[in-house]
């Protein structure tokens, strides 16, 4: 039985890398960006009214942090394929820690700050914590959420670029001629 036409590849074309981690990465990008934009818009709107983001802002922060945590964990799963038999996943992971390592590091730093650390910081400013009283002025959390979005958008664009670039490097590595062993 022949595979469907979308799954067929030619000799110079690599089969697409699939798996649960790849699916999570695909659906979590628009969700994370949507939550980041929604949180920023809601927080700025509430700040213009002179009010804190309240319960809706807390839920948006929680959803954003959970989505980005899941997304960053799913991206890290790719590195578990290092070692063993040569596969397209392994070649993509090698590209991410090899020639693309600086971009990969930047992506993780921006993703952690834009999707986890800064939104949690804004939440602490909005609602307070155990020994930290909430701020009275809603402008500070709004600015922090704006900076969060300014980190989140390039992080997600960089993630998409890294994914495509790592697959291209993996395909080039697979098609490179093997030197004879002397």
Short description:
The protein is mostly helical. 70% of the residues lie in helices and 0% in strands.
Can you describe this structure?
- Helix content is 70%, strand content 0%.
- The chain is mainly α.
- About 4% of the residues have low confidence.
- It has one domain.
- Helix 1 packs antiparallel against helix 5 and helix 3 packs across helix 5.
- Keywords: Membrane, Transmembrane, Transmembrane helix.
The count of domains is 1
Helix/sheet category: mainly alpha
Low-confidence stretches at least 5 residues in length (pLDDT < 50)?
6-12
Q: N-to-C SSE series?
A: HHHHH
The end-to-end distance, rounded to whole angstroms, is 41 Å
- Please give the count of helices: 5
- State the helical fraction: 55-70%
Number of separate strands: 0
Q: Tell the overall outline.
A: elongated
Mean pLDDT: 83
Which percent band covers the strand fraction?
under 5%
Radius of gyration, whole Å: 21 Å
The major sheet is characterized as: none
Transmembrane segments: 27-45, 57-84, 105-127, 139-158
Keywords: Membrane, Transmembrane, Transmembrane helix
